[in-house]
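Consider the tokenized backbone below.
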């Protein structure tokens, strides 16, 4: 569930962002509630940019989906 994800996985990232310990992140190909993290508007825009005010860069692994399609 999204609540479990927020409680379990997000606090460490929030702490790193608050401490300005990172300047960028790479979004994962794993899914949260069936939506791949690399294209998850809620995680990337709502949480990361708007709620946490992260202004660093985000690298996406979306290219993995393209190569997956080629090899399936």
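A designed sequence for it:
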């Amino acid at each position: 569930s999204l609540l479990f994800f927020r409680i379990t996985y997000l606090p460490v990232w929030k702490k790193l962002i608050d401490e300005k310990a990172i300047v960028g992140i790479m979004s994962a190909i794993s899914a949260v509630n069936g939506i791949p993290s690399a294209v998850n508007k809620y995680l990337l825009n709502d949480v990361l940019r708007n709620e946490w005010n992260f202004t660093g860069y985000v690298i996406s692994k979306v290219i993995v989906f393209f190569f997956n399609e080629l090899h399936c």
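The first strand starts at residue 24 and ends at 26.
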